Amino acid sequence: MAVRDILIIPDKRLRLKSAAVQAVDKRLRALIEDMFETMYAAPGIGLAAIQIGVAKRVVTMDLAKKDEPKQPQVFINPEVVWSSDEKATYEEGCLSIPEYYEEVERPKAVKVTFLDLDLKPQEIEASGLLATCLQHEIDHINGVLFIDHISKLKRDMVMKKFKKAAKKTEGVKPLAEDEEPSHYIG
Fold it and tell me: Could you confirm whether 137 is annotated as catalytic?
């Protein structure tokens, strides 16, 4: 297992539509393990494979609180097949848009079909945080970010900020795995 780098906007790969998973093999299982390691280390409650640069329709999630035992969930090829007319608003954040949070309105409840690790069809009805998280992560595998659900003005401001930050780090050589950073920030 390994903690992988999380793609940060404006990385264009975050806008890719991910391909459906056809088989669960050793490589996919290793990817899922890495996704959980990366998600827990971040820390986050959900992660789509595209966020670590793999354009496959795989989502990992764990909504357990810090003092509760872990409750890892895997969703392969998830699709929202029904959503309620009633809406709910949650303050969302994203590991690919660090330290930015915004109120997002989404359907309050959803029904999602997906495959489990044995490629058996499953269906889940979700509301509350689970519904929000499922919609957020399924958006990722469709090339959509949560900032696409906010006003254009706010979205443009966020993109400008992250594009500016990305330019500052362009050309900076990443550390080799065996190198120590000379300083730590935040």
Answer: yes
